[in-house]
Amino acid sequence: MDRGWESQFRARMREFELTRAPRKGEVSVSLKVRVVSGCFHRQCSPHAYTLIDKELASRTSRRPEFTFVEHESGPELLVYLALGTAGITLAKSVIDLVTAIIKARSEGINKGDRPSDPVEIIVRRVGDGDKFVEETVFRVGHADPVGRAEIEVGVDAALKRLFGDKRAKIPARVTRRTTPKRGAPNRSG
User: Fewer CB in a 10 Å sphere around the end CB: N or C, the chain?
Assistant: First the structure.
């Protein structure tokens, strides 16, 4: 059974791939910063998005390595990663941007943004055929300390698991989930 948001996700990924076709050895993935409950968009989080916008503006002069997509549930980055003999490689700047988004969320809440529910970092992709796969890297509250290194380790482990490396060590804060079970709440974006 295909859920509406999965169809929208597939369409977003196809559109992203049409803007720049993958190079040899590259695959497209989504890195999502999704609020657990409530919203994390421009209207509810204006202070956070002011910081996110500044971060995005500082990157406009560089070759775009990602597409930034806003959702009510939180921002999403559509990116390519390299699958090679050296392993899975995600651009350092993408991890830096995810870290900046998490920090902006925290600073925004400290300045009055609401609601203040935790966010999850999720890595997902469209697999073979119509298979949809996602890995939840971890959940973080606005007051929880989290740094670039922890995000990088979690995302790297989730990517390895997403692409079938069962040996990947999942850090304690990382969880695994595949396509939601029937009756699971619809999570747009």
Answer: N
Q: Which residue has the tokens 């400290």?
A: 110
Model confidence pTM above 0.85: no
69: left (phi over 0), alpha (psi -120 to 50) or beta: beta
Closest by Cα among 104, 95, 102 to 34: 102
pLDDT tens readout for residues 30-61: 999 999 999 999 999 999 999 999 999 988 65
Residue 68 pairs in a beta bridge with 77
Q: What is the pLDDT of residues 153-186, one digit of tens each?
A: 999 989 988 887 655 554 554 443 333 333 444 4
E strands, 59-189, in order: 66-69, 76-84, 87-89, 119-126, 132-140, 175-178
Distance CA(182)–CA(185), nearest Å, equals 9
